Amino acid sequence: GVALVWVTIRVIGQFRTLYNSQQAASVRLEQALQAKADFIADASHELRTPLTVLRGNAEAGLAIDRNSVHREIFEEIVSEASRMTKLVEDLLFLARSDADTVPLDIESVAAVPLLLDLAERARVLMRREGISFATRLDGYGTLDVDAVRIEQAVMILLDNAAKYSPEGKAVRLASSSWRNEFIIEVADQGPGIQGEDIPYVFERFRRADKKRNRTRGGTGLGLAIAKTIIDAHHGRIEVHSRVDEGTQMRIYLPLAAPERTRVLQSSVEKPLELAP
């Protein structure tokens, strides 16, 4: 009996020691993550001003004399400063999301008209990239979302699809409603994603095809930002892809309560579809 009591006390003591160690490790990890987020946020803030000044001076040089022998240098400075500014903004956004402070301006909006406005801007992007663009915008309901952030997430997916679409193929934007969700799909007919890479496509700086990404630009943060935005809206993104056939990215967003949906539903009497 005495031995059993002694063993029990010893086991309990070991469990208590293990628990305290895990708690201390958890606190250290939380502090390290917070320090990382603070560093990224501080560095991003500090880089904003010099990048703005650099770009402004280069643009001023171009405005004074576009025929200057230094025109190509000024244009390259403007281009690189713009790229770095976007990288800084992306890092700052992700740092805020790590600290659970994703800035959202939530409002109730009709789902399909939100995509109609976005599709017109996307068409300009596709035209600039020389990519065909098709839409099929159906569905119903309203969304409680930050419309600007949702548009940002969808545009990231469209931009990504355009980068991987071969000449003569189309990028498609589609939407539908199913039960209590509004579904947005962006599909391309590009090379697809290897099965082993699919679980990692939303990781920061993850690039399945590093060579291609370097030639087409990008920071490797776009898909991570898109997922962060959708997660903040209690939605999700799914990836469906086959090599040599293409990729579909689907966003699922929760619809607003039915009684509010009836009040805010857009009065559209025919299918919402834009001509390619």
SSE inventory with pairings:
Elements: H1 2-64, H2 71-98, E1 107-110, H3 111-129, E2 132-137, E3 142-145, H4 147-164, E4 170-178, E5 181-188, H5 210-216, H6 222-232, E6 236-242, E7 246-254, H7 258-264
Parallel strand pairs: 2-4
Antiparallel strand pairs: 1-3, 4-5, 5-7, 6-7
Structure characterization notes:
The protein has 276 residues and is α+β, with helices and mostly antiparallel strands. Helix content is 55%, strand content 17%. The protein has two domains: 2-98, Orthogonal Bundle (Helix Hairpins), CATH 1.10.287.130; 107-264, Heat Shock Protein 90. The chain has helices at residues 2-64, 71-98, 111-129, 147-164, 210-216, 222-232, 258-264, and strands at residues 107-110, 132-137, 142-145, 170-178, 181-188, 236-242, 246-254. The strands form two sheets. It has a five-stranded mixed beta sheet with strand order 2-4-5-7-6. It starts with a helix and ends in a 12-residue tail after the last helix. The model is unreliable at 210-215 and 261-276 (pLDDT under 50).
CATH class of the largest domain, please? Alpha Beta
Number of domains: 2
Q: What best-fitting shape do the alpha-carbon axes yield?
A: extended
Q: Alpha-carbon distance between the termini?
A: 83 Å
CATH topology of the largest domain: Heat Shock Protein 90
